[in-house]
Structure to design on (575 residues):
């Protein structure tokens, strides 16, 4: 064992158990897609996504689900979802690849097709790229399909939330969008690792209806995630023509990859009530003729709140990390759908509206076609970006292109432009580019008419083909290929004592000889010191004692990097 003294003065087995831990895929490119190789291999939407669900003919159902499901149940074929169905009593609903679920349309009975996976129960919906699972309207092409034809899919779990809507239990809340209060629809608890099952290669079409006539702005979403824990697996999910938000997270810690929000009425991705998950590879596409028409409504790419009661201080804070998103607003590139001029009365707003003390971070993403780029509302929200009070409130927007065609970006209700250095395109630390044009990003074929198949990959000369980084301390939890591509043995990195005052020890194992870079960052992600700069380390166990006596008290992050991938640990220094 080598001991070194340096100074820093300046899813595993089954969906029934915990799923495989989330890993970040390290990319060089910004946005949701890489440079094209002219084969389906680099387009993760190929084979399962549907860009014209309005005109897709589905077969007539041959079986029906109605009432509640209390025992393990499997379905396949073409199924009619008749009314609001709860999967309860810890039951598991398994849906075979290729299953089509056609959902009852809403009527005066306020009982549209809606699937609720209650706390303790699970869904096992594992489609494939060639056989996706589809939830869609039961209306035919001739009858017309519209946003809000039916309810949606609701997953409820036992993970921590920051708001309590049930007087008998302050740790749980009732899911929004229903006319009646049923304890089966309560969510939230104390288990952040809770497992609600799997959604993989799933399409949700024409959902999002309001069932509570007394709450005009409280619809069911395409996919609602209430207190869903990190044991749940969500990937390759497309929500199309939804009457409310495509995806909405209410607290919890569930991670996700490969999400598509396609021509939804309200927000593409909505995070609330202490949601703390990680999401990578997201695509949001707006339709110029579809927006939230409710008085005061606004259709955004991201809408993020901490909680709904001023001064919005409930904990844990909403602080998800999104990376590799492509947001295309209702103006498109200004030459197709919308032609740069939106309809009278439209309510299309910002690519990201972050408010009410949310600490929602965004990295390595592309924003275009919106009237506003970023909108940070409320002083407490701005503090999370400009001067966070602690590690839990740090919010970062970095390595993001907000194309020059977007005319304005708000930081308060009245200002028209940002005045913070971290935002401007000359900011080296955050690298937010507001100069590059849509033409310079150069998608393969992103701007097509409704019903045509788009291609959101980058052309070979795209300016967005480089520039992504994954070095910020927000990227914790491992990286794809960490065992195969680097020398560090996963989960061996330990920092002790922690908290500390005079010194601390970094302990880690390497599988073979390799070059290691060790860096120290402050709470804002600024580099404090380069402790080891690509130095060679032998195979085996290593301990490095680092002096912290000259550092100010506060929260810092040590990162060990091998082959451009980092493992990061937080440390608290108290003098």
């Amino acid at each position: 064992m080598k001991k070194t003294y340096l100074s820093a003065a300046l899813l595993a087995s089954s969906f029934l158990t915990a799923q495989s831990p989330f890993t970040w895929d390290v990319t060089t490119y910004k946005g949701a897609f890489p440079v094209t190789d002219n084969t389906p291999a680099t387009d993760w939407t190929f084979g399962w996504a549907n860009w014209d669900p309005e005109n897709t003919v589905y077969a007539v159902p041959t079986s029906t689900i109605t009432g509640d499901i209390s025992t393990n149940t499997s379905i396949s074929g073409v199924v009619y979802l008749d009314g609001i169905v709860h999967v309860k009593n810890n039951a598991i609903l398994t849906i075979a690849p290729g299953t089509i679920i056609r959902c009852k349309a809403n009527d005066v009975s306020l009982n549209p097709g809606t699937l609720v996976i209650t706390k303790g129960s699970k869904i096992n919906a594992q489609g494939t790229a060639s056989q996706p699972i589809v939830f869609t309207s039961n209306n035919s092409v001739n009858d017309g399909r519209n946003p809000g034809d039916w309810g949606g899919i609701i997953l409820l779990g036992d993970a921590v939330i920051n708001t309590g809507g049930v007087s008998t239990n302050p740790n749980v809340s009732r899911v929004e969008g229903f006319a009646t209060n049923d304890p089966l629809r309560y969510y939230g608890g104390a288990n952040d690792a809770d497992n609600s099952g799997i959604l993989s290669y799933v399409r949700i079409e024409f959902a999002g209806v309001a069932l509570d006539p007394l709450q005009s702005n409280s619809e069911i979403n395409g996919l609602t995630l209430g207190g869903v824990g990190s044991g749940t697996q969500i990937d390759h999910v497309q929500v199309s023509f939804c009457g409310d938000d495509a995806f909405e997270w209410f607290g919890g810690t569930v991670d996700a990859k490969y999400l598509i929000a396609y021509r939804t009425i309200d927000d593409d991705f909505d995070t609330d009530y202490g949601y703390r998950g990680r999401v990578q590879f997201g695509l949001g596409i707006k339709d110029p003729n579809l927006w939230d028409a409710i008085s005061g409504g606004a259709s955004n790419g991201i809408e993020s709140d901490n909680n709904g009661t001023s001064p919005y201080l409930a904990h844990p804070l909403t602080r998800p990390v999104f990376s590799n998103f492509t947001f295309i607003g209702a103006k498109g590139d200004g030459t197709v759908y919308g032609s740069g001029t939106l309809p009278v009365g439209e309510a299309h707003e910002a690519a990201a509206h972050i408010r009410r003390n949310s600490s929602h971070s965004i990295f390595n993403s592309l924003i275009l076609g919106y009237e506003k780029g970023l909108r940070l509302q409320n002083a407490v929200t701005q503090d999370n970006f400009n001067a966070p009070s602690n590690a839990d409130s740090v919010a970062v927007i970095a390595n993001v292109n907000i194309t020059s065609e977007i005319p304005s970006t708000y930081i308060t209700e009245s200002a028209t432009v940002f005045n913070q250095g971290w935002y401007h395109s000359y900011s080296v630390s955050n690298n937010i580019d507001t100069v590059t044009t849509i033409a310079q990003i150069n998608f393969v074929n992103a701007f097509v008419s409704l019903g045509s198949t788009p291609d959101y990959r980058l052309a070979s000369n795209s300016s967005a083909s480089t520039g992504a980084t994954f070095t910020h301390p927000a990227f914790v939890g491992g990286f794809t290929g960490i065992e195969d591509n680097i020398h560090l043995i996963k989960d061996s990195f330990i920092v002790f004592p922690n908290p500390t005052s005079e010194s601390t020890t970094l302990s880690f194992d390497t599988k073979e000889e390799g070059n290691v870079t060790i860096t120290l960052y402050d709470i804002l992600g600024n580099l404090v010191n380069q402790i080891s700069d690509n130095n060679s380390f032998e195979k085996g166990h290593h301990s490095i004692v680092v002096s912290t006596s000259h550092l100010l008290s506060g929260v810092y992050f040590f990162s060990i990097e091998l082959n451009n991938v980092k493992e990061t640990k937080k440390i608290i220094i108290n003098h």
About this structure: The longest helix spans residues 379-386. Helices lie at 379-386, 438-441, 482-485.
